[in-house]
Amino acid sequence: MAATKSPGAVRRFFLGEPPSLELERAQALSLQQYLSYFNYNGHQYPLSGLTTTLGSKEEEPTASFQGYVEWAYYNNPVVFACMEVRRALFSEARFQFRQLRFGRPGDLFGNADLSILETPWPNGTTGDLLSRAIQDVDLAGNFYAARQGAQIMRMRPDWVSIVLGSQMDEDDPALALDAEIAGYLYHPGGYFSGEEPVPLLPEQVCHFAPTPDPLARFRGMSWLTPVVREVMADSSMTSHRQEFFENGATVNLAIGFPAETSKQLFDSYVEAFKQKHEGVANAYKTAFLGGGAQPIPIGSNMQQIDFKVVQGAGETRIAAAAGVPPVIVGLSEGLDAATYSNYSQARRRFADGTMRPLWRNVAGSLATIIAVPGASELWYDDRDIPFLQDDMMDRAKIQQSQAGTINTLIIAGYKPDSVIEAVTAGDFSRLIDEHTGLFSVQLQPAGTDPNPPDPASNGAPPTPARPIGAKT
Questions:
Q1: Do 436 and 364 share a structural domain?
Q2: Is the pTM of this model over 0.70?
């Protein structure tokens, strides 16, 4: 990597911003498993059989790519739904080059250099490439891809390290003012796999990180990080609802026995009660208690805790962090207030506020590994995306306004082709030196005769033209 720089340009490489460490550790017992080991005189008594007030605590996920995949994407329907809405629309875009004239955007065009984005790997499409990019960004905050010949190779984000270089700080270049990316290291199988890392130059790697991590200079951050506790709460609510039905769909109960109850009678009663009153199949059955047993209601039912409202509020905050309006995802709070007008506004906010900045960013990131023609930039083409076609009425109004502008400029004497190009591009500077030199009659100076008399006629007015077919 240093060979591409002038001698002495980078004195020392520093392995900065390492991936999240994945250390093997013993399997931790859940609270439910822990409680199952309580025993009395050598006999095990799962406490859930005696009281249903104790439940498992949610454990925070490991702040790593794999941790978010297994904990949130695989197991939380709200996170999965938000990510799928983002991925489905994000993958619809295509790539084109866009002309730049005097710093202003121009026409879209394509050439053979775009073929690697259209088929990034065998049997792959642009949509596959964009799907992988947005998934990695959502879960890890970063998408890395390397160009290898005529293919783009996606690199798992937690297996990539950024190599930093500095001329000012030999001990810790990551802290230096002039720190720069000297390259990337790809660790096949993980940071501690023991495999030899693959060095890559900056111009070989696409690094897409739309949400910067405030504590890292070059690395991105997942939108899941700020809502970890919201996702934990949502998962806990789902578990609570499942436990509610599995335990007879009733409020929590504790069964009290007189102090003189024998061990044998206690064991037999616990077994009989569990068989007849636990599980969905036994919901709402009447409980008959004997031997002095006394049911003690504990806790609240779903109606008392307003389950739908509590869980719906958490879902909305998760959707807000994802930049997806709840009505687009289909969440309850969004649907309760949904109308056609609201949905149209939500769709526009999602497209303009979330998707288009992401498309613009990924286009700039991918431009690193493809050949971009001069005076052009890599850009996205969203004209054929069905989700955005609801703006056709607005576009028709815009086109009507543009047609009026075109007509005015042509009447003013500008070349028609140049007028159309300038109006559609929104760049009137393109009309410089494009005037025909001819003006509308209404713009002639006062007293000017558009048909001056022939000097040879001695001031006599010109003879009117004879209409075609008129008799002489």
A1: no
A2: no
